[in-house]
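Bumping my old thread because nobody answered last time. Still need a sequence for this structure:
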């Protein structure tokens, strides 16, 4: 690390759980973030500020006025720009050392099969069920840890899928991909702005823990936030023996 890096990351280096070695691992890592919206904004800003060496951002959308209530990486001046370009600009303003790859694309199985193997950690900051399952399946196929978050209205949830751990459940063990599911989206249901900040920042925290080796991850636990009562609950998750995604691989 250079003298400037020792200063920039000094508050991490002071932590016994991170230290110089943990910070070196963060600097050498590559985070793949799917979604540059409400969850992706705080996630990418914290991963960038904390010194993740390389970040690949994938999102198909452009910044819209209705996004600005909660998607804090974007600005009024950047309405109409691709979200990935806007978020890349925000990261670079905080930490110009981060190498950001901005892909304006939909995260389908083919793209994920190209990107996931190159990543050290994957963050699901997407907003729909099909993409969540495509990301989970790609992470299981390629043995990469996944931090999955979701927020709608006043409700949030977060978990970690770690296929490197043989007993760790995947997202499809808990939420079957073939289940009849009524998609609920922010555009129709609304979303309480700070909750995407809470969950997105927690996704960054779990990713940085996985990268640096600080503390046990959320693998095997689903945290659920009721933002009205401001209460967390924890559900312990088990692998489903007939999971269509991970059972055949283990
Ligand atoms: Zn599974």
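Sorry it took so long. Here it is:
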């Amino acid at each position: 690390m250079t003298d400037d890096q020792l200063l920039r990351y000094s508050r991490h280096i002071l932590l016994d759980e991170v230290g110089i070695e943990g910070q070196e691992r963060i600097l050498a890592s590559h985070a793949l973030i799917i979604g540059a919206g409400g969850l992706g904004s705080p996630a990418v800003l914290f991963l960038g500020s904390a010194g993740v060496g390389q970040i690949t951002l994938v999102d198909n959308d452009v910044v819209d006025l209705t996004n600005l209530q909660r998607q804090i990486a974007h600005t009024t001046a950047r309405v109409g720009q691709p979200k990935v370009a806007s978020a890349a600009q925000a990261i670079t303003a905080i930490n110009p050392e981060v190498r950001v790859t901005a892909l304006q694309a939909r995260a389908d199985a083919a793209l994920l099969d190209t990107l996931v193997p190159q990543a050290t950690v994957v963050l699901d900051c997407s907003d729909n069920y099909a993409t969540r399952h495509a990301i989970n399946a790609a992470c299981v196929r390629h043995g990469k840890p996944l931090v999955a978050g979701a927020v709608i209205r006043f409700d949030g949830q977060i978990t970690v899928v770690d296929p490197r751990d043989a007993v760790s459940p995947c997202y499809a063990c808990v939420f079957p991909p073939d289940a009849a599911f009524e998609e609920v989206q922010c555009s129709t249901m609304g979303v309480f702005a700070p909750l995407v900040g809470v969950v997105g920042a927690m996704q960054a925290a779990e990713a940085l823990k996985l990268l640096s080796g600080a503390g046990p991850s959320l693998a095997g636990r689903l945290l659920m936030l009721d933002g009205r009562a401001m209460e967390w609950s924890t559900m312990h998750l088990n692998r489903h023996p007939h999971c269509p995604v991970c059972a055949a691989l283990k």
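The first strand starts at residue 30 and ends at 34. Let me know if any region looks off to you.
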